[in-house]
Amino acid sequence: ERFPYLAQELKRTGVNRLLLWEEYRKACSNGYSYSQFCYHLQVWLNAADVTMHLNHKAGDKAFVDFAGKKLSLVDLKTGEVRPVETFVAILGASQLTYVEAVESQKKKDWIKANENALWYFGGVPAALVPDCLKSGVTKGDKYEPDINPEYGAFAQHYHTVILPARPHSAKDKALVENAVNLVYIRIYAPLRDRIFYCLEDLNQAIGELLERHNQMNFQRLEKSRRQLFEEIEKPALKPLPLERYELRTFLNLKVQFNYHI
């Protein structure tokens, strides 16, 4: 009798078998073990799972991107639901992850989220690897991409460089895309029935689930992202500057014949 409900829930963003089993056991403490639950559910669904893992050098790169699927806020006065963007950053070696909901993909939100990620990590990697979105890269190219001037100034302030993911290169995007999928499972899914009215409350809830995610052990390694970060990645990061970056405005203006703008 539960299978139609479970099948429907599995179609929702981030919901997986483990989450459904945990909810099932709360309602039925003497029910199936996790393996039995998965077996019977898989027979009914005839489904399968896929996993992935990659290795990177400590302190080398942080991969940054926006999640494709959005969270939402509700206007307290009108009840209107509006989507918000989810920024995701992940360090290559430890896979320590940072997640933040922001208003838009505009440059100011993009740069601020990048900066917040660096302060969350407590240090700066040698390079930031964004996808080719306009807030970070004005022109994508395999060999000589054009970096958005303000994003470049931000990187200079933090003594790092921007290495955009190569267009049509799945390898360059694999780690952050896998991180986004885990964000769907470990953050989106637990929040799916909660209502938020402001970014501050949403980000507080995200932060609590994010820390839980970073403290969870890898399936094939008896250590968590947080432990790996403290052991191998944190010592390899460059120090943060004394002050945060101050957003600027870059304009292309034409100089007149009298040298006035």
UniProtKB/TrEMBL annotation:
Can you cite a GO biological process for this protein? Answer: DNA integration
What region holds the Integrase catalytic domain? Answer: 54-249
Record-linked InterPro entries? Integrase_cat-core
Q: Which domain of life is it from?
A: Bacteria
Stated name of the protein:
Integrase catalytic domain-containing protein
